[in-house]
Amino acid sequence: MALLNLQTKLSLLSTICLVTALQLAQAAGVAEYGGIARVSFGLLAIVATCLSLLFLSLLALDPAPNDGVKSTLRHFLSATAAFLRGKTALSRLQKHWKNPRRAQDRLLRQILRENGDTEYGRRYRLRDIKDRDEFRARHPLTTYEHYRPFVEREMNGERNVMTRKFQSSYARTSGTTGHSKLIPRTNRLGRLESYLDILYAIVYMTNPDMGIIQKQLYHYVAPVVSRSKNGGYVESALTLRDIRRLYHATPPAGFGIHSYEVANYIHLLFALRDRNLDSICVLFLSTLESMMKQLSNWWEDIVHDIEFGTISEGLDLPDDIRSALTAELRGGDRQRALELRQQFVAGLDNILPRVWPKLRVILSSDNTGIWPKLREKYSRGITLVSGGYGCSEGFIIGIPIWDWEERPEMLFHPTSNFFEFIRLQKTHESQPETMFLDELEIGQEYEVVITQDCGLYRYRLGDIIRVTGFHDNCPSFRFLYRLGLMLNLRYEKIDQGVALQALQAAVDRWPGRVKLTEFAAAESTLLSETCTAFEKDEIMPYYLLFVELEFPSGNESCEEITQEHKALLDQELRDRNSDYERLRREGAIAPPRVHIVKPGAFEALKGHILANTSTTANQYKVPRKLRSENLVEFLLQQVM
Fold first, then answer.
1. CB count, 10 Å around CB of 47?
2. How far apart are CA 592 and CA 573, in angstroms?
3. CA 202 to chain centre
4. Residue pLDDT, tens place only, 432-463
């Protein structure tokens, strides 16, 4: 049996079970046997028939030929269970979407009841609060600094400070918009698994032609995890300490790698080994773009490893992980290596469906608007399914239930957090009035405020959403930007979306058919006199824009792009923001300084941030607004 491929094994097992079922059924009809024996034979015949049908079904689902029968069966059962759990959870959400106010009121009462007898709860008399209006009137809006001393006391071992339950995890935020925070969480892994089940169900319900037996490229880089004094884990919100899912192309040992580049290599190696891969899951599409750029340099080494069952000696891997992963390669697959080599030699244009004919879905969040470019370059015909909207503080906030390209909207998860909302026009106030979930208006923009069960009350996320409509009685919305990403030298408040639109419009008018790849911005008020970019003769503040471009093949020069071309950005910003236009007209803001950086500069920036901060590879997002002089200096060194 060991020399047979999986399809042959499943066919043989199905035949054996069917023959056994017929023999047992025949024995059940023999009068010489006693009644109990005949019933037993009949039951065994039913079991054998079911097993025969199961093996036949697995065969029809076209599993990977190099897998074993046991792992394929476990994969099928695990994936089926995840789908059923996710579908059940979605059914419950459908009921809540019909009456979100009732779901929200019930959640708030539960939170106040469970945490009312803590030190924090007694201080704010949470148990005495009767309804959401009283809660809104009596508890102030908060930010993380309000909770920092309570979190530190809990982490040092004090109990019953914020919650009665033990906080088993402290999610470290990425620090994209400021210093990292530590957000207490109970049952973090359980919540994460539950949400992954929901996404899994959404993927298969919106793409019914996918096969449940196929595997997924799940991108993950193991973050550094520590323990606080009270025994809780200090980790990222998406840390997977226990890889329980069996439908990832990467073996469990591959999820213990801390290096971003090495993890990318291993994920690509095992995913490319499986011709039947049907989905890719990355947290942000910028990660997939990085993997594709690395694949263009690595494919020969990866194909060699697939062919001979080796792992490149150039990878810095711990011995135990290397041994475990090498064993999973099972001596190599020369036929698959030949297929891949033929595809890569032909170039990387539309490479994803070429190397994975069954690939149907990329599950990810497009936080930079790069999906059209990626789809055209690497993945024409592949569907993008949104990974939803969440954060360390609120965990799961938005659920995407529609085809993302047709309807890029989400619905609020009404039992994950108690929601309030601040109108965009009032976000500058410290204690503005708020609205509840059932009071939102279509077309309006709001800052999201959450209350969750782990100790955060009326917590301002700083995230801005726009309400787009309703599904049943629950608002649908789009995530727009974070207030912390807003450029604001005076009072102009240019958000990330407007900055991107202006920059894209300017680059489209530059010579040389260049395309915008990445960008980041900083305010000159950040700079000290020792900074290379500091201009002592410039009195008025200005923006610094760092731009990475994609050049036509064979022409990686920006000599044709003059200062006049760069000045187009100033006009595009003036056309899009009336306050900026007025301030520029009055001379209160100087023109922006545009710096074109070398290709690969933002990949280098990523490596610099991962090496020098607590940000993990799984959390990393390009810092559109640079908040430290160190990062400005780093990008200045990358200028062409």
1. 14
2. 10
3. 15
4. 999 999 999 999 999 999 999 999 999 999 99
